[in-house]
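Hey, quick one: can you model this chain's 3D structure?
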Amino acid sequence: MGQNSRNKVLKNHLEELKAHAITAKTEQDISRVAKHISDFARKNKYQFNHTLTFIGIGLAVLAVLLSFWSQMDLTYEQRIWLRIGSGLVGIPCIVIIYLRFALIKRVGDQLYVRSVAINAGIERDYNFDSKAYWKELRHIFPLFKCGDESQSITKRYLGGVDTTPFTLFEFKYVKVTRSTSTDSKGRTRTTETRSTHFKYGMLVQFDDFNYLSINTRRFATKWDSASRSFNKLFKVRCASEIQAAKFFDPKVVLGFEDNFSFLKSMDVNANSVACLELPDSVFPSQVRKPSLRNTNDFVQQLLKPARIPMLDSAKKLIQFINENK
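Sure thing. Here's the predicted structure for all 325 residues.
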């Protein structure tokens, strides 16, 4: 099989896997994809043929060396053009190799994350406007008022605990920091530095649970438990101290201390929708991913993907709240 034909076969196969990473919904779907990968690997490798690109890099390196060789009868301008030409050949070849490796990794990662999500009982939702959805949430929960630009809900998954539905989200925003400096001639210069940040969490639709928040300022009234360690972890605000005290009985206080200290904040609106801010490890894409190039190991892990301990803990928190509210 020629180089172009081999690369075309692999590229087409990766496009198929990419489609499966979007459409797979059940463990049976993942099993069929795993078989498809194993069948492909019997005759092919998950590796592009880089022969021509390696030749291009070799010629570029040779050209650079010749441009510095004093015994070559070349003018200064010819040496400069020889170096420029080597860059025009060598750099694109390096970029092509990088993009090919990245493509294999990206498709493998997407497929494995899909398997992890299916195993966790959540489904990736592609049918929403990331910018518009952020604007909607910004007017409801202060968590989404962060950043100076590029705010959006980049990913979301839908799931549920018993009869309680939830949306798992990834929120991206960019902070812009401006600094001013003055040179020796008194000229002022302003520079901008941008940094990208992410927040993760859940939107949970509870029933009749709209009277307290944790580590946010939704309500004016503060409530403290008798436990210092609880009060250090969780700053509770509530609609009334009676409601907070009724929910946070000693058993609930101890449960939050022992099992749910990972909770960064919990905000609720009047419709009993709670916004839980959680560590990034709650998201499927944060799991460690096997390499598609190591096919046998990848297939085994695809069929038995890793669990998401933080997501399991978040589900237990939802159950715990439902049982005690």
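One thing worth noting: The chain is about 50% helix and 20% strand.
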